[in-house]
Design a protein that fits this description.
Helix content: under 10%
CATH architecture: Ribbon
Distance between the termini: 33 Å
Disulfide bonds: 38-64, 52-79
Shape: globular
Keywords: Disulfide bond, Repeat, Secreted, Signal
Main location: secreted
Order of helices and strands: EEEEEEHE
Structural class: mainly beta
Protein name: Fibronectin type-II domain-containing protein
CATH topology: Seminal Fluid Protein  PDC-109 (Domain B)
Domain Fibronectin type-II: 33-81
Largest sheet: 3 strands, antiparallel
CATH superfamily: Fibronectin, type II, collagen-binding
Radius of gyration: 12 Å
């Protein structure tokens, strides 16, 4: 059913997401994006990402930008991974 959230296999992660309008929407947790979906591709430190990344994080938690240009907008959230706790302090 379109728009119904559920678990989806994406890239190397099992994610909480919804599918609507022909697109998979990965909904973020925590961060500063208030649950907005990831936007792919997004640019971070002059590199384009087409999936959640751990780049720039010492704790290796997967995150994504919720706008195409993170460096400009700085809107982000953690990518939910089934079976793993995101122990972020943000």
């Amino acid at each position: 059913m379109p728009g119904t959230p559920g678990w989806w296999w994406g890239a190397r992660l099992l994610l909480w997401a919804s599918f609507s309008g022909g697109a998979l929407h990965i909904h973020t947790l925590l961060g500063n994006a208030n649950g907005m979906p990831c936007v792919f591709p997004f640019n971070y430190n002059n590199k384009w990402y087409s999936e959640c990344t751990t780049e720039g994080r010492e704790d290796n938690l997967h995150w994504c930008s919720t706008t195409p240009r993170y460096d400009r907008d700085e809107r982000w959230g953690f990518c939910p991974v089934k079976g793993k706790a995101n122990r972020a302090t943000h």
